[in-house]
Write a structure and sequence with these properties.
The protein is an alpha/beta fold. The protein has helices at residues 17-28, 47-53, 70-83, 93-105, 124-134, 145-154, 177-186, 204-207, 209-222, 237-246, 283-290, 303-306, 321-332, 335-352, 355-370, and strands at residues 4-9, 12-13, 34-40, 42-43, 57-60, 87-91, 110-115, 139-142, 162-164, 194-199, 226-231, 253-257, 271-274, 295-298, 314-316. The protein folds into two domains: 4-168 and 354-370, 3-Layer(aba) Sandwich (Rossmann fold); 177-352, Rossmann fold. Helices cover 44% and strands 18% of the residues. The strands form three sheets. It has a seven-stranded parallel beta sheet with strand order 5-3-1-6-7-8-9, sandwiched between helices. Strands 12-11-10-13-14-15 form a six-stranded parallel beta sheet, sandwiched between helices. Strand 8, helix 6 and strand 9 (162-164) form a beta-alpha-beta unit. The radius of gyration is 21 Å and the shape is elongated.
Length: 371
């Protein structure tokens, strides 16, 4: 049987959840059954090397001056025409736009739109364009029930097109004791420190690291050895560093920066906090679950679904530093509750968000579309 030819269209390849899921596909889908190519605006970091090592071809077409730029879409079309895909699998807004335009110019190709965000800040014009693009799609994938509700209720996409394929995270080996000691030494962490951790790109209007920083003085009033460990980088890091100084938290907030192996850092944490203002899913929550870390997270977007509506972690309102401090302190004072949340979290992650389940769901979608 001739291999299925899958063309992926993304915005960028850096270190996000969409790229991590493409790694799952690259490692699990048999190379004699699938041939993959990928079009993106730009690629950086270690992920492109991983995908290329798995046999994927990556094409960078540059940043688009606008979503409707004809030259930008033409570059993508020429690549697609040469590749001759059976399926174009688009994800993230720009990637979905490319998938739609390729699908319009190659009528026989099957088109997948994968909505990966919780588009609460998308303007009506963006929603209208997304709805129009989904008109060309053969399948519209939501990465959580919250997202499929958006496709169904806000965009009015026909039910027959909508597929729920929950996000997934691969398991990772626990880092060695030497590795953990190296990390502690590098970032000035003592074994007696109480580490509240968070992981993500430092875009504060989204991830709200500032709310965790503002919660830290109250936590330290009861737990003087408490420190905040932020793993990730982004444009708001300097602002957060200044906020830490203003609050007298010199040395109590650790900025680890971008890390190629962020999973190791969860093993330093006593509590994981995700304070997002909006979130379609929150892959970092599953990573924390698999690392046996108790979780405090905001009750927004797809987060309640991931945390099994509070059975696998504490849910709090967004934009509320006091709720963060109260929840963290309650966990630090109650190890029985911590053990209960950790046990439920591991079970939830392994049953609902496994890599095998994700790959099988995507493979079934590909097969169904080409049947």
């Amino acid at each position: 049987m001739k291999p299925k030819r899958i063309l992926h269209t993304l915005c960028r390849i850096h270190s996000g959840g969409v790229e991590q899921r493409r790694i799952l596909l690259a490692r699990a889908l048999a190379s004699d059954q699938y041939v993959h190519a990928l079009i993106c605006q730009e690629a950086a970091g270690p992920i492109p090397e991983i995908l290329c090592a798995a046999g994927w071809t990556i094409h960078e077409i540059g940043l688009a001056p606008s979503m409707l730029n004809f030259a930008w879409h033409s570059r993508a079309y020429r690549i697609a025409k040469s590749f001759e895909p059976d399926i174009v699998h688009g994800a993230v807004y720009e990637g979905e736009a490319l998938a739609c335009s390729i699908g319009l110019r190659i009528p026989h190709v099957k088109v997948i739109m994968e909505e990966t965000s919780d588009p609460v800040q998308r303007r009506w014009t963006g929603n209208a364009l997304m709805r129009a693009m989904c008109g060309r799609a053969d399948a519209c994938v939501g990465v959580s029930p919250k997202v499929t509700s958006y496709l169904r209720d806000r965009l009015r996409i026909p039910e027959r097109k909508i597929r729920l394929i929950n996000n997934a995270v691969a398991t990772a080996p626990r880092p060695s004791l030497d590795r953990l000691n190296d990390l502690r030494f590098t970032f000035g962490i003592e074994k007696s420190d109480v580490i509240i951790g968070s992981v993500g790109r430092i875009h504060d209007d989204h991830k709200r690291f500032s709310d965790i920083i503002q919660a830290l003085p109250k936590i330290r009033a009861q737990q003087p050895k408490a420190k905040l460990l932020i793993v990730g980088d982004g444009p708001d890091r300097l602002m957060l560093e200044r906020l830490s100084i203003e609050l007298g938290l010199n040395g109590a907030v650790i900025f680890a920066g971008y890390q190629e192996a962020p999973r190791d850092f969860y093993n330093l944490m006593d509590v994981f906090v995700l304070a997002s203002a909006y979130e379609a899913f929150g892959l970092v929550l599953v990573e924390a679950m698999l690392s046996d870390v108790p979780i405090v997270a905001t009750k927004v977007g797809g987060i309640p679904f991931v945390l099994d509506h509070g059975n696998a972690g504490i849910l709090i309102p967004p934009f509320t530093p006091s709720a963060i401090s109260d929840a963290v302190l309650s966990l630090l004072a109650d190890q029985e509750t911590v053990r209960s949340f950790c046990s439920a979290g591991i079970a939830r992650a392994q049953s609902a968000f496994s890599a095998d389940r994700y790959v099988n769901d995507v493979a079934k979608l590909y097969t169904d579309l080409l049947r």
